[in-house]
Amino acid sequence: MRKPLLFALFGVFCMTAFGANAAPPAEETTFDGLERRESKVFEHVWVRKYFDVRSYHKIVFKAPHIEYRPVMNETGKSDPAAAGFPLTQRQKDSLYQIVSTAFQTELAKSKFFQMATEPGPDVLLIRGDLLDVVSFIPPNASGKGDLLSVPEVGEATLVMELYDSLSDAIVVRALERVKATHEAGAPPTTAAEAVQRTATQWATILRERLDAAASIPLNE
Q1: CA 174 to the chain's CA centroid
Q2: Which fold has domain 3-213?
Q3: Cα–Cα nearest to 129, from 196, 175, 71
Q4: CB contact set of 110 (below 8 Å; sequence gap of 6+)
Q5: Fewer CB within 10 Å, N or C, the chain?
Q6: DSSP, residue by residue, 123-143
Q7: pLDDT tens across 119-160, in order?
Q8: Domain residues of the chain, as ranges?
């Protein structure tokens, strides 16, 4: 993979839980029948009535969906970069493969669920989506110094959804807005190392949220 591609990917993909900004208003009951719950772990979480997490012991990984914020220059803005930079289709395809591989690898480390390949009465389907992804890395960035000197790397909304594998009904939805910044003075790294490292970090967030779902209070 060429350096320009890796740098652009890194700009979008380096999203770890280094702070969160305002999330959209949260409905008490969603259009698909989930009820909002208060949680110390999730920024926002909704759960289906009568859902009992103790009934499930395995998970099947569903391919993620990645959605990017449209890059539109707003009238009156002095800095077009504030809206983020677009990715090419090739960069999006590469990012999709990196995300999918990292998610599957990290989910296999779950403390409460085993990986499965087929639906079953004790199997959940899990999907981790990246929505409203924004990259603040210029597409022409080249060299380690140019990339790692950017203070704000990118941001996105992480959405974790769990489905009952037999009915395909959604039972849990959790989301949070996360962004990443590059720490001043951090040791230099190659683009390939940076992409893989941040991919693992991002997948770890998803796995931690999955394991946290195992502690969701039971419905009455």
Answers
A1: 11
A2: Rossmann fold (3.40.50)
A3: 175
A4: 59, 207, 210, 211
A5: C
A6: EEEEEEEEEEEEE-S-TT--S
A7: 999 999 999 998 988 876 666 654 444 444 445 566 788 899
A8: 3-213
